[in-house]
Amino acid sequence: MVTHDVIVVGAGVTGLTAAWRLAEAGRDVLVLEARDRVGGRLRTDTADAAGAPASFEIGGQWVSPDQDALLGLLDELGLATYPRHREGDSVYVGRDGVARRFAEDLPVPAATAAAITELTKRLDALAAAMDPARPWELPDAGHLDGISLRSWLEEQCDDAEARDNIALYLGPAMLTKPAHAFSALQAVQMAASAGSFSNLLDADVILDRRVVGGLQSVPLELARRLGDRVRLGQDVTRVEWSDGGVVVHVGDVRYAARRLVLAVPPTVVRRVRFDPELPAEHRIAREHQSFGLVVKVQAMYSTPFWREAGLDGTAFGPYELVHEAYDNTPEGESRGVLVGFVSDVNADAVGALDAEERRTRVLDSLAVYYGEPARHPLAYVESDWQHQELTGGAYGTSFDLGGLTRWGQVLRQPVGPIEFGSSDVAGLGFQHVDGAVRVGTDLAEGIVAGR
Ligand code: FDA
Fold this sequence. Notes:
Elements: E1 3-9, H1 13-24, E2 29-32, E3 44-49, E4 52-57, E5 62-63, H2 68-77, E6 81-83, E7 89-93, E8 99-102, H3 110-128, H4 141-146, H5 149-156, H6 160-175, H7 184-193, H8 197-201, H9 203-206, E9 209-211, H10 217-226, E10 230-231, E11 238-242, E12 245-250, E13 253-262, E14 273-275, H11 280-287, E15 289-291, E16 294-301, H12 305-308, E17 311-316, E18 324-327, E19 336-343, H13 344-351, H14 355-370, E20 379-382, E21 397-399, H15 403-407, E22 418-420, H16 433-448
Helix pairs in contact: 1-10, 1-16, 2-16, 3-6, 3-7, 5-6, 5-7
Dihydroflavine-adenine dinucleotide binds near residues 35, 385, 423, 433 and 434.
């Protein structure tokens, strides 16, 4: 059996970035991917739109200007980007269920607007004081990790619509869990990982650009460069390890290496049996992690009809089934595409419906923002990550109450020759492709440096 320098398990952006950097440094690296494709949570599907095929990004797609690790990699790989359409008014639906257009200021009562500004200031201050890679070091981390974001917001503010708007950006829109299900500390880490809470509020920052050909072009290009060092259909189910190296099992086939990088979400590590077993804290830490859940829905229309009505396509409402939606028309496409998101408890609810009823409910919600034409798409596509054992939800994983201070440090600790990483354990770029690039780069640099 050949002994490689490093085996990387998982051909998402984390694993492929690590593998490519190791290969560049002259290491003999082998990537084992369980699926029959590379990219993990980045995937482009084709669907029929009234007789003409159209491409849809089912997983991650947006790039923001502060994501310099990803932007640097895009440059290096020669991948071009284009901006999201943003001319026109946006739409907000508040507690009364009425759709209101706005250009600058959110159309809410003055007291609610002031409360949102104040909460934003407080969250920005907490995020600025935090190193997102070490959130447990924030003064008051213990208290903030022991209360849910919902309770923290109730402590800070008595305006319900202000609280619900802030919770929307951190819960449904980011961690994709209800605000009672994760700690205030986890929420601050989410904000700190994006540079500030204000960045998360600003669609022109966080949803700035897309990649020509789709964000999946990143793993595809990395895999092309790695060539036959990437093997598909290799579901790793068993790892024997000692200080000297690993033997990795895929069915009856075994591969050996001096080091192993498990570039899979923390919740998926448990699919692998380790011999000897991982130290107990490694299992327990990952048991306190779970995937959020969001269904990404895309509807294609014969034209981007909302633009003719002077709308930029950006729409949101904390009380709507589709809590946020955007113009998602690819560059150069004459047909119009809207993307919307149904998150956490709403995702549970629509998940219990049959496909036709779910589509009707989602299109009804889009019609609240964009009017009757939204009910009549040429094509309608839903993401399916919750049904895939090799992922398990969307967008990423986060801790339960108290988990971040108790177990956060364990997720990046190596065990013997085994390293762990994915965008779910990133500091900057947490839960984003930028974080996957950062973690993959760190892992490779550590191995090359002999750490
Ligand atoms: P990822 O999960 O992608 O890769 C892990 C790989 O390991 C997978 O290919 C899996 O098959 C493989 N694997 C698992 N177990 C294995 C085993 N035992 N043996 C072999 N292989 C195994 N981000 C962003 O920056 N902008 C955005 O707009 C969005 N939007 C978004 C929407 C949706 C719907 C989703 C699901 C996600 C996003 N994201 C995003 C998040 C982004 O997609 C995500 O953070 C990264 O793609 C994660 O990359 P990783 O390589 O870390 O994990």
